[in-house]
Specification:
- This protein is of the alpha/beta class and 315 residues long.
- It has 13 helices and ten strands.
- The chain has a domain at 44-233 and 275-280: NADP-dependent oxidoreductase domain (TIM Barrel, Alpha-Beta Barrel).
- Strands 3-4-5-6-7-8-9-10 form an eight-stranded parallel sheet. A two-stranded antiparallel sheet has the order 1-2.
């Protein structure tokens, strides 16, 4: 009997053959990505990665293997290595895991996933359920140890304790916590101050600067790496700049598109280790990677960027 996993394996292999065109095999010459260090170890990561929520998740749920193979190939061919996912992102983790295995790059990718056996407001997690969810992630990516697993439920100590055990056993290289809810920032800060974590994941964008007030400075103080989510504010920023040209002065720091404008703003914060915008379009991933090449805006330029965006109509 053909299982869903077997079917994904066969279709991913076929998608690989379709997607690896000479253009993608050569790469698209975006340039050398800036690299940032993980404070806990000094390991360096390319500053731009790929998230798997939003449109990536939608395409994964449709099991469009060929398209996502092109996206992951374009990421890899142009120097990107960080892939952020989660079991709650529909089929994203399973489909992407099978693709990277068929491409033979799973060991070279920095695989960041999450555990969420106690959803927001649900109380403590069942340890058996949490461990089963984590083991399923190992199976999907075909990689042991996994590079990073983060807890998505900040008020549940059970899952972070499980991750500590896995790290001690050598099955997870880094552990952390993640939230994009601003009403959880106090809880996040408490964990950052009191728990031995390596990473956090949170939202931050040119029109969403709350994290810069406390969370990002605290990450620097505590020596914690930061994965940035939603540098485009989901679709909010795209709506705000619709029909508008990127200002000519943005070329001074190498931003030729709005995607690069938004990404470079986030990447310029020294606390941010990796920016992980989600996309299901191979052209867009190359554009996004361009935001991690060359100069980054200085403090005065960042103020100019925020003034421009703040003056636009709200989405």
């Amino acid at each position: 009997m053909l299982t869903r996993r077997d079917w994904l394996k066969h279709t991913a292999a076929a998608g690989t053959a379709l997607a690896l065109t000479p253009q993608l095999l050569r790469g698209q010459e975006v340039g050398t990505l800036i690299r940032r260090r993980i404070p806990a170890t000094g390991e360096e990561l390319p500053i731009i990665g790929l998230g798997s929520s939003a449109t990536f998740r939608a395409v994964a749920n449709e099991e469009d293997i060929a398209t996502l193979t092109e996206v992951l190939s374009a990421l890899y061919d142009n120097g990107g290595r960080v892939f952020d996912t989660a079991p709650v992102y529909g089929s994203s983790e399973e489909v992407a895991g099978q693709i990277v295995q068929n491409l033979g790059i799973e060991d070279e990718m920095f695989w960041a996933t999450k555990v969420n056996a106690a959803p927001r407001g649900a109380g403590s997690a069942d340890p058996v359920e949490a461990k089963a969810q984590i083991e399923a992630s190992f199976d999907k990516v075909g990689k042991d140890p996994i590079d990073l697993i983060q807890v998505q439920s900040l008020r549940d100590p059970t899952q972070l304790g499980i991750l500590r055990e896995l790290k001690d056993a050598g099955r997870v290289r880094y552990i952390g916590v993640a939230t994009t809810y601003h009403d959880e920032y106090d809880a996040l800060a408490a964990i950052m101050r009191n728990e031995p974590i390596d990473f956090i994941g949170t939202d931050y964008a040119v029109d969403n600067r709350t994290a810069a007030e406390m969370i990002l400075p605290l990450a620097q103080d505590q020596g914690i790496a930061v994965l940035n989510y939603s540098p485009f504010g989901s679709t909010r920023l795209w709506q705000r700049v619709s029909g508008r040209d990127v200002p000519a002065w943005a070329r001074e720091f190498g931003a030729h598109t709005w995607a690069q404008f938004f990404i470079k703003y986030v990447a310029a914060n020294p606390a941010v280790t990796v920016v992980t915008p989600a996309t299901s379009n191979p052209t867009n991933i190359v554009d996004n990677l361009g935001g991690g090449v060359g100069a980054l805006p200085d403090e005065a330029t960042r103020r100019r960027m925020t003034e421009l965006v703040d003056a636009l109509p709200s989405a």
